[in-house]
Amino acid sequence: MDFQHLNYWQEKANSLQPETRLFINGEYCAAADNSTFETIDPAAQQTLAHVARGKKADVERAVQAARSVFDRGDWSQASPARRKAVLHKFADLMEAHREELALLETLDTGKPIRHSLRDDIPGAARAIRWYAEAIDKVYGEVAPTGVNELAMIVREPIGVVAAVVPWNFPLLLACWKLGPALAAGNSAILKPSEKSPLSALRLAGLAKEAGLPDGVLNVISGFGHEAGQALSLHPDVEVITFTGSTRTGKQLLKDAGDSNMKRVWLEAGGKSANIVFADCPDLQKAVNATAGGIFYNQGQVCIAGTRLLVEESIADEFLARLQEQASLWQPGNPLDPNTTMGCLSITPTPIAFTALFVPQRAKAPCCSTGAKTRGRRPLGQPFLSTSIPPRPSAGKRSSARYWW
């Protein structure tokens, strides 16, 4: 894969004009009250765009559009062959626009352009293709009954699906949720994070170009307490699928119960552990996997290996190798194809980020590869610490690059 060079991506970034309006019923439009919010380029720490701020009135329009097209059957009753063809065309367009989409992801999140181009965009397109291929391979069932009875199990679309996605993998997670929803014939409303809404808004235009009927896919950019809660409480939304914090997930469950008892799918992440035993057949491979499992995407991954448990007899050698491997993950300009570690997508301030680790580091008997930032940019370097208590504040609160 040709990742080009830094000047190439800088020139493309300078000429980029991202879509910033809501997408409702097949059209881009301003918010009902014309309000907007700023998105920040994490690397430059400057305003990237002013994006439409969707609220309850905009959610209402989107739900009405999604419900109307569902009831008409333009998509929900379309043949499997047609839905399959449209979704394949959708994936084709994503691949054709991979540089534009990758650039939007990198500018919006601070992740390296190399990773956006190699992983996020191809992965998102593959997800759409996978579900497109599954459309004509999902069958009903005939249940065993008495001689004079017939019981059939038929799988049908449920209605309007709301998909709420986080800021760390905006496009990839959007397609993981939209793929099955659209393949089944549902209408969907996508609510991207206010930190990274740009690729989702562009995605909607590609879906329309692919032939998705108006109203089947709507995108509402905005904040959780406004657009997100309006979706979770809306009586005409049958399903809400969410990836993000445990606190928000609990609130969505409550909102579902307080409204129409909509179905809820949650993925709230966690503190994952890598475990390495002395009989590991390839120690260096385990070291490399451990480093990639925590430093990839600046550690901002729901399943990042934030804890490392190593058998004592190999601990010293393993940590020495890991320290060497960690030194290779140096943060840099996300638009440079040689960069493997970009910027933190969200952090209060560089000072606050550093302060989170310094007290823990002072207490730790053994530490390596310091945590620090560079100027105003949230470029946290890899940080390893050993012999930390089971429940330190850093271990529970930090987003990345931490073992205990």
TrEMBL record:
This is Aldehyde dehydrogenase PuuC. Gene3D superfamilies: Aldehyde Dehydrogenase, Chain A, domain 1 (3.40.605.10), Aldehyde Dehydrogenase, Chain A, domain 2 (3.40.309.10). PROSITE patterns: ALDEHYDE_DEHYDR_CYS (PS00070), ALDEHYDE_DEHYDR_GLU (PS00687). Belongs to the aldehyde dehydrogenase family. Residues 33-344 form the Aldehyde dehydrogenase domain. Keywords: NAD, Oxidoreductase. It comes from the Bacteria. The keyword NAD applies. GO terms for molecular function: aldehyde dehydrogenase [NAD(P)+] activity. The active site is at E267. It is an enzyme of class 1 (oxidoreductase). Residues 369-404 are annotated as: Disordered. Its EC number is 1.2.1.5.
